[in-house]
Amino acid sequence: MSAVEQGIAPRTIEVLDHGFVRLDDAMASDLSVVNAARVSFARRKEEMDDSDAGLIRFLMRERHGTPFEHNAFRFHVRTPLFVAREWFRHRIGSYNEFSMRYAKATDEFYVPALEDVRTQVGKPGSYSFEPVSDEVAQATREELAAVYAAAYAAYERLVEAGVARELARAVMPVGAYTEFYWTVNARALMNFVSLRAAETAQREIRHYADAVELLFAEWMPVTYEAFVVAGRVGP
Ligand SMILES: Cc1cc2nc3c(=O)[nH]c(=O)nc-3n(C[C@H](O)[C@H](O)[C@H](O)COP(=O)(O)OP(=O)(O)OC[C@H]3O[C@@H](n4cnc5c(N)ncnc54)[C@H](O)[C@@H]3O)c2cc1C
């Protein structure tokens, strides 16, 4: 079912200082899970009922994952490069990204809010992230802004001097924003949310995963509820 047929308006959720998650379109419903599973018995339904919700919970619990693959969410996403790099590790899905070979680099960079500047305590694998003083937080923001300005000025000088964009981009910091399309099915999406909306994930990608989760829950509410009941582990 399309967005219009489902009565759900595709929408944009703003994330970080210049980013967003926009659901460009989706072909997704709880019914698609049920019908994919029931084709084993040559059965098909036009509407969900309680037994279908039970079937979805069963499939989730028993990790029968393939019925959750017959749908697609197409997201348009804007993130800092370091978030995109984490995101692209999720191989089950399709990506197309803004190219700094062909287009001029963006001059928008991620500067964390004061409360998002943190220190890490502990050891690899079990860090906790604690607030820093306002002075350190403000100094961090200023250091980042200064580096971004210097890097972008160098980028513009190089391009102006005739250096190819594909090479000039080497000066761009990983805090620069990029954009991409991500098309993914519910099974891989749940795996993404499971890993990236978790406490152990980096705070910045968590905000994006939270937005993806919200949009997913709107489209496939029964599947989403079953996912939560199953401990937020995908099938
Ligand atoms: C908190 C956190 C810390 C991380 N730290 C690091 C790090 O330090 N270094 C690093 O390199 N990565 C790191 N990662 C990335 C991580 O290793 C995964 O690459 C990423 O989370 C994608 O997960 P995935 O493979 O399950 O997703 P997808 O690639 O979307 O795959 C989905 C599922 O498909 C199956 N699958 C996909 N490809 C294969 C395959 N080739 N063989 C078998 N099954 C497959 C698996 O069941 C997989 O779970 C980290 C991730 C998290 C969440």
For this entry, give a set of tags.
18% strand; 5-stranded antiparallel beta sheet; single chain; 7 strands; binds flavin-adenine dinucleotide; Gyrase A, domain 2
CATH structural architecture of the largest domain = 2-Layer Sandwich
Number of strands: 7
Q: Give the count of structural domains.
A: 2
Give the ordered list of helices and strands: HEEHHEHEEEHHEHHH
Biggest sheet: strands side by side, in what order? Answer: 1-2-3-7-4
Terminal residue distance: 23 Å
Instruction: Using the alpha-carbon principal axes, give the shape.
Output: elongated
The count of helical stretches stands at: 9
Summarize the structure.
The protein contains nine helices and seven strands. It is an alpha+beta fold and 235 residues long. The chain folds into two domains: 3-100 and 175-229, Gyrase A, domain 2 (2-Layer Sandwich), CATH 3.30.1360; 114-171.
Question: Could you explain how this protein is built, in words?
Answer:
The structure is a single chain. The chain is an alpha+beta fold and 235 residues long. The protein has two domains: 153 residues, Gyrase A, domain 2 (2-Layer Sandwich), CATH 3.30.1360.170; 58 residues. The protein contains nine helices and seven strands. It has a five-stranded antiparallel sheet. Strand 1 and strand 2 form a beta hairpin. Helix 2 packs across helix 3, helix 7 runs antiparallel to helix 8 and helix 8 crosses helix 9. The radius of gyration is 21 Å and the shape is elongated. The site of flavin-adenine dinucleotide has 10 residues, from helix 7.
